């Protein structure tokens, strides 16, 4: 792309809370002597744009072109437009929204101070039959649109009385419009957007509507993300206000958990946060908010009359990046199935070009969240293109010394707080897991320099013992009092930070080897070796095989990352089991620990315990959320989310994905489908199921580069309904001893089937080469 392309603007005015500025419209008339064989428009909108050709909205999707820091990368889109052009008069129309270019609603993260802020602007070029016809310049004319306020986080306000019917069509009278003005080009590097666009995936009707003080509550039954389409036969000047929330308090919208409550900003949040406003022109109309999105289950609607408050008035347009689905899981346990569904709904509700941390409050690309979720997302979604695009943004904002911020994009916030190794590990984990699940080496090559710079940076942070403690720790560990800790977790920060850098260095060494960067691989391996020694010498008791902190996270990390010697593992395992039993078989780990804990238990032959901990419906357990009726994963575990009117309640976000690695555990340990377990062969899949007593069947699928792999097992002694009834009957005795395992895979896939302890194939043995077919498995006679 060529940044010599001219950018244009309507004027120098910027929308703020104190000064609303209408989103500008632009149009350009031109004449063609004949219809071109091919034609292309290349456009960059800062912040967002909608593109019209002869009245047709051809924009790739909401929030185009991308969400980025314009000082780092400026995104372009290309459109084939020959089919939309005609002989004679034609019109190009553009509408601009504030987007990240003027994200004043993100003032908590200093986006209102960003160096790139200015009035919105765009560049575009129309090329036909190999020749440039024109670029954006002062021959475009501009006029305010009916959108009187828009912000990515806060919402969209629309006055239908300002509509200009036909504004993007030929024949429209634009004599009163003003010429566009030239604008400064952005400082960021131009880049064609290769991430999947955002799309509407479902239209959801309300499951309940009820009257409340001041208006009506629309309940859509699920907590997800998108916008509402309003259909109304309105009165002239009638004002409809829609406030979007996750939960209600005394049948009223509860705002505190979708905002950061600060005394100086509370009035702003009450007035603006997740709020769309529509002023009617009169008569039948539809309104879909532009340049924003919300996370919500409920909408508080003000301004509707009783006859207007129908189920057809509001429709939830669920939106997210349009990622292909390539994996699945199901089993006989409804709690597990519900958790799998909740994890994936949170994944999608938080995937707007890249993984975010919540769709209602922050909409930020928190690096730690994505790092913890990278593997389970890639097991069921084709997210590699979007991951690669986001990594380009992380590279662009990496500091010269190698440090990376906690949020990307950023205007500079996130270096002093909010990052550290567990968050920074995104720069290794995204390439590593993308390579594991796709075999794509380009993502390694593209990010190798960033990884090397970071490893150099990490070495400058070591203390005299060779350890480091510079970031956030085991975030949101559940505590005995029923709350969640931030940086006061049981696992010492020096342990989690040092262990994560050890893991990063090991993975980096592996990745470098895969692409022939052998000196870099040796450097990374050297760092890993030094950290291995420092961690064992300073943060482990060799007599008891206990990691510092004496907690589930520390012990699980040492076990997961190979920090215990083989001969120490039995004792280290017993230490971990004792820790869990001391908590009455409840989890007590935060974000970092929960990424490793259950996989470690399965590797130690303790899948039954992991299953019990996950499905536990008392605090703290994932099953608790299912029992409470959740439809998405929460930000953290809280003992009691109930509260009374007038109380000051601490309610976490109810839609986060970073605790969703249980979905990966379901696939890899319950169904047993482990694709490319060593990350070095995309034609290998091992099958290592866990036949936990609580399940009658489990199955998983994954579409590998060579084709679909399916694994499923079921107990053959009786039908599933009988079995489920049996295990729920505490008086029933006996055991289910026969299992049928089915595997289908392309002929090019190889691997092994490994049975858990206590089971063998009917024909004998506990391990065999992977082949498609059906296997009969029996429980060993004790």
Low-confidence stretches: 643-648, 726-735
Radius of gyration over C-alpha positions, nearest whole angstrom? 28 Å
- Overall, the morphology is globular
User: In percent terms, what proportion of residues is strand?
Assistant: 25-35%
Number of strands: 39
The structural domain count equals: 4
Mean pLDDT: 94
The CATH class name of the largest domain reads Mainly Alpha
Assembly state? single chain
Spatial gap, N to C terminus: 70 Å
Instruction: Give the class from helix and strand content and strand pairing.
Output: alpha+beta
Largest sheet: 10 strands, mixed
**Fraction of residues in helix:** 25-40%
Total number of helices: 16
CATH architecture of the largest domain: Alpha/alpha barrel
Catalytic activity: Hydrolysis of terminal non-reducing alpha-L-rhamnose residues in alpha-L-rhamnosides
EC number: 3.2.1.40
Pfam families: Bac_rhamnosid, Bac_rhamnosid6H, Bac_rhamnosid_N
Domain Alpha-L-rhamnosidase six-hairpin glycosidase: 327-669
């Amino acid at each position: 792309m060529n940044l010599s392309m001219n950018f244009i603007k309507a004027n120098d005015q910027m929308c703020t809370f104190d000064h609303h500025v209408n989103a500008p419209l632009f149009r350009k008339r031109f004449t063609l002597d004949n219809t071109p064989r091919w034609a292309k428009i290349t456009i960059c909108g800062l912040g967002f744009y909608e593109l019209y050709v002869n009245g047709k909205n051809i924009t790739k999707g909401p929030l185009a072109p991308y969400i980025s820091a314009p000082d780092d990368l400026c995104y372009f889109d290309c459109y084939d437009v020959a089919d939309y052009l005609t002989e004679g008069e034609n019109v190009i129309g553009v509408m601009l929204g504030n987007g990240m270019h003027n994200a004043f609603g993100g003032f908590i993260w200093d986006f209102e101070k960003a160096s790139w802020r200015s009035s919105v602007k765009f560049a575009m070029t129309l090329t036909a039959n190999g020749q440039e016809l024109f670029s954006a310049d002062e021959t475009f004319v501009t006029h305010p649109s009916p959108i009187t306020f828009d912000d990515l986080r806060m919402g969209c306000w629309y006055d239908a009385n300002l509509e200009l019917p036909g504004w993007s069509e030929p024949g429209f009278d634009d004599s009163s419009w003003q010429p566009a003005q030239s604008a400064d080009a952005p400082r960021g590097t131009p880049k064609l957007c290769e991430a999947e666009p955002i799309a509407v995936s479902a239209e959801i009707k309300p499951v309940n509507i009820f009257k409340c003080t001041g208006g009506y509550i629309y309940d859509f039954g699920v907590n997800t993300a998108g916008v509402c389409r309003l259909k109304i036969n309105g009165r002239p000047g009638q004002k409809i206000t829609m406030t979007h929330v996750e939960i209600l308090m005394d049948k009223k919208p509860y705002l505190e958990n979708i905002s950061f409550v600060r005394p100086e900003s509370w009035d702003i949040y009450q007035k603006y946060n997740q709020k769309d406003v529509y002023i009617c022109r009169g008569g039948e109309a539809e309104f879909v908010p532009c340049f924003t999105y919300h996370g919500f289950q409920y909408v508080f609607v003000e301004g509707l009359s009783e006859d207007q408050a129908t189920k057809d008035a509001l429709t939830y347009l669920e939106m997210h990046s349009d990622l292909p689905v390539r994996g699945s899981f199901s089993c006989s346990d409804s709690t597990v199935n519900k958790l799998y569904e909740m994890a994936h709904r949170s994944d999608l509700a938080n995937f707007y070009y890249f993984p975010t941390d919540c769709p209602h409050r922050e909409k930020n690309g928190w690096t730690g969240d994505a790092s913890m979720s990278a593997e389970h997302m890639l097991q069921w979604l084709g997210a590699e293109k979007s991951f690669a695009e986001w990594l380009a943004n992380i590279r662009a904002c990496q500091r010269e010394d190698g440090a990376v911020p906690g949020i990307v994009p950023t205007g500079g916030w996130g270096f002093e707080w909010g990052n550290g190794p567990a968050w920074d590990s995104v720069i290794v984990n995204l390439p590593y897991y993308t390579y594991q699940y796709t075999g794509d080496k380009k993502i390694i090559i593209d990010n190798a320099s960033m990884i090397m710079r970071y490893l150099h940076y990490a070495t400058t942070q070591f203390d005299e013992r060779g350890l480091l403690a510079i970031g956030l720790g085991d975030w949101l560990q559940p505590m005995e009092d029923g709350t969640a800790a931030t940086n006061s977790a049981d696992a010492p920060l020096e342990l989690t930070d040092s262990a994560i850098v050890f893991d990063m260095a090991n993975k980096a060494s592996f990745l470098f080897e895969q692409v022939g960067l052998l000196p870099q691989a040796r450097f990374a391996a050297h760092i890993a070796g030094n950290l291995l020694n420092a961690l064992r010498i300073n943060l482990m008791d060799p007599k008891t095989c206990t990691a510092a902190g004496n907690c589930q996270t520390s012990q699980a990390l040492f076990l997961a990352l190979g920090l215990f010697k083989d001969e120490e593992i039995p004792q280290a395992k017993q230490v971990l089991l004792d820790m869990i039993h001391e908590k009455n078989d409840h989890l007590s780990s935060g974000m970092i620990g929960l990424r490793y804990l259950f996989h470690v238990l399965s590797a130690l032959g303790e899948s039954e315990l992991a299953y019990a901990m996950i499905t536990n419906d008392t605090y703290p357990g994932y099953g608790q959320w299912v029992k409470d009726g959740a439809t998405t994963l929460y930000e953290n575990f809280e003992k009691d989310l109930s509260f009374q009117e007038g109380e000051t309640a601490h309610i976490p976000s109810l839609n986060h994905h970073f605790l969703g690695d249980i979905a990966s555990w379901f696939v890899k340990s319950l169904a047993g489908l482990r694709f490319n377990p060593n990350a070095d062969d995309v034609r290998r899949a091992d099958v290592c199921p866990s036949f936990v007593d609580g399940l009658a069947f489990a199955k998983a699928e994954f579409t590998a580069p060579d084709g679909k792999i399916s694994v499923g097992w079921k107990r053959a002694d009786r039908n599933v309904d009988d079995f489920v009834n049996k295990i729920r009957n505490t008086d029933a005795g006996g055991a289910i001893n026969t299992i049928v395992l089915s595997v289908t895979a392309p002929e090019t896939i190889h691997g092994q089937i490994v049975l858990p302890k206590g089971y063998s194939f009917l024909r004998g043995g506990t391990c065999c080469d992977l082949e498609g077919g059906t296997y009969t498995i029996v429980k060993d006679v004790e």
